[in-house]
């Protein structure tokens, strides 16, 4: 039989094997027994050795010796018949189904990496099976038996009689008219040769030789052969390798008892068409007995959006599925096979027997076959010569000379001529076939060329096509093929296809043409011919040819990868319709390599969906899940309904996978997507907790934006740590609690046992259908200190024991929202809180949840959304490619530590400018160990005052007592001293004992400038030594973000009230600027902080009282937009300020302060009780008199500031206000401070814009004694000029005209007057 696979044959080898001489074999029962001991028939025994080991020679008609190289004989049982139609289809399907090749090679085309199979054994097997099951046709003779081998046993006592019986049976086959199967090349004179099989292990060689000699004397020496085999008895191990395993193909075999007339094989080429090309429609009618309507014949294009899956066509009526073919009833006689398919072959043979088999094939060819072929060639050549030129009729002769005949030109395209065996045309064709089979391709081409002219003239189109086909092959084998000979094959295919309507021969011609054109590298022509042979009659054939055409597009110049992808998709569609799911799956996978990432979204979706369905049918559920997951990717263009369908199928596939493989545990979800960059982890932060009405410290929130002010917090922390370290050397590293994409974790984060860890992650629904998440939890793994590993994945695994689940439940407590709904293409952030109960290393792996479509929540899938460890590039990386892993999801859990809770009394969100708010700070030690030290750091100490702060005298106040130029002051220490306060300092005791609660009084003063105001407080508390080396201290953050509203605007000027006595006075203007109409402002009192002057309590003059009106809290208040002016007089102190030593702050303030009530409200005394007394060290006057240094001030600027004290007086205005809000009325109180440096210079609060006035600065060489407050001009004693501004004064004196002196305000103005003047 044919053998075309497994040996890497080239095109010429394939053609030689297809058209090798066919030798019939008929064996006696005794001979069959000898062969069956090797689990072989005689035909199968010869298969591996059918190729002649040496060259053979035969003489043509001219006597020229022709060398035949590589001649292969094709041995065939004479009882073999082509299979029935259904069986032929089954064989073709199984040849493709059983062939596979998982090895691939990588080919890069147009920057696309394609994984292609290294070989296509399924195509080779199908081609071999296709050529094997073909019916031997009457228009060609290469498939007719040339001779016959009659195989006998040497043990047969009646060997001659048995030989006669076998010969008579063969004679009956050859003499049947009309000729039936098997068909013979020259039935009137067939070469019958006799082979005597001798079993060397059992028989007597001398008896065998006697029987052999008897045969030789009866039938002739050249026709008889003795073959010794079975040198072993088969009891032991086989001596020779299994040469037959790649050759054996158990083909159908008819029962010898059934007469040939009763065989169900086709009897003519027209009947045999249905073996290969039977329309699938007929087959489905045969199987189902149903009539198919014409409307059902409409085939959908593979990429049509109306046919999402090619697998939908598998069970349609248009194709034959493997299941339907497998269900056919097979004739047991056809499949009868007494040989074991899996048993080893050649068990009784030795290497000597193998040599005997090779020698027999060579001997038979040289002694019997080739002389017979020479004889046949002579007979046929003589017959052709004698009949050449003699036309069958006058009409035929006229037609040959004068009519140009073309296939299909006439109305009747059937064969117009029936030739007899003796006709010159068939004799010429036979002669060409003989020459071709035995390698004389030159004479074969001449014969075929002559035959095709004769057949063309007779309009015998089937014969004509056959002659064209063989003429083209002869030219190719001769090596003289060119465009014209390739056109011969093209014409033959077209003629078979369109005129003769013989698909099987057109397909065979296409397969042969493909090999010829591939050798000539005409791949485009190959693809065109293969594509032409695809139709709706055979899906399997179309699939195989389309696949081969696709591969041709890859080797054209230039390669056409898009055409390859398109045709491999078409091939996959046809494989699917033919029931070849595995090959359909492979083709679509190959096509996807081209379509992926090409923004051909719909084509990509079609391929992925088909791959998913095919993989699902093949039980490759992992691959199916991956493809369904791809269909749910972001950016898909599918409709909401379609994506809902995809989601349901994805969930179904995943659930099927879990049922089949429960050991897989929790599978990753395709939806929703985790926005990996959104993962935020917060550690070492106590949850805000306080009893009402106390407000907990804000601390760090999981959603905090650290990029804005983290540097401020780090600087405060650094000052706190340095202060607490008390000059001990160390390397400061700021504490980090919140880890995000912008703030990655270079080192492993630390969390405390028993304290919550917060994690936030954003989930994104990328599809157009809503999804529902339920049973939400975090997936984690905890490695304990003893290296034992716990994971909550076991809670969701049925195989886990209850003890493991209990241990996991006790290890970490997790809280989160139970379920959420994600609308189409929406995002939502999940917040988790984990409380570890054990120590070790915690890895957060992902989110566990149950996913379902919102439209159909019944079908759901429990799985995970995996977190990915991000790669980051360190700031100090020398190379841009240097990356490290972000450790934010790997957390170290340490034993319990002391913890302090901080809470505050409530503070209004809106304050008035300069308002003072009392705040009580509650510190609670939640731990079981005492807290030794507590410090408070602040970014704006001007606005904060603590009751128990033990601060030193401010440098500015100290410089008013003595010159500090020569003092050795450390800049950083002074800066820290201004911003860091130690709390609860108790000598010999801990600051806060275990479980102890302590409340601290604190006041806040809003800035005098309106606008947003932020105040940051950082609490530092140290941990007991030896507690844990990872953490030395802990921090609590609090931030106030307030809105400051403008309320009271004040300014003051020091003037000479009496030019005669040089008495000085203060002109003070105040105005209610609050925007709310019902706000009432009361100016309760003023205080003057001055080294040389006091307020005269007896001289207060209200200059503008028309705007003052009664209010709710007193008879004199300022309504909105109302102003008031008053003047008070100053009196110089009698005694010069003298201190033997540096006084305390309180003593200094008391000695320099004087007070005067202005327009007090009824609640004035109540207000003063809630504000720090102005002469106390913690009063805001102390803050006002303190020069606060910027943290980045230079040393030169610091020293200049210390040495550059300027004498001045500070006026403090104490006020209160009733503020009307939507929620009700609120009582507010505060202080405004105005610094006065010189006469006629106006000071403002809030401060005037820069450039509104100039301040006098004392030069560095002025002595302390020469510095005075409000110095009078020289000569301005007892004369009136002293009260006038010196207009012509030198600019260096920095004097400025005062437009608001008493003389200019002699007219009392009211608002109506001012408005009238302005109008």
TrEMBL record:
In this chain the TPPC8 first Ig-like domain maps to: 708-912
TPPC8 second Ig-like domain boundaries: 914-1036
Report which superkingdom the organism of origin falls in.
Answer: Eukaryota
Its cellular-component GO annotations read: TRAPPIII protein complex
| Domain annotation TPPC8 third Ig-like: ranges | 1039-1235
InterPro entries, alphabetically? Ig_TPPC8_1st, Ig_TPPC8_2nd, Ig_TPPC8_3rd, TRAPP_III_complex_Trs85
**Protein name (record):** Trafficking protein particle complex subunit 8
Taxonomic source organism: Drosophila rhopaloa (Fruit fly)
- Gene for this chain: LOC108049531
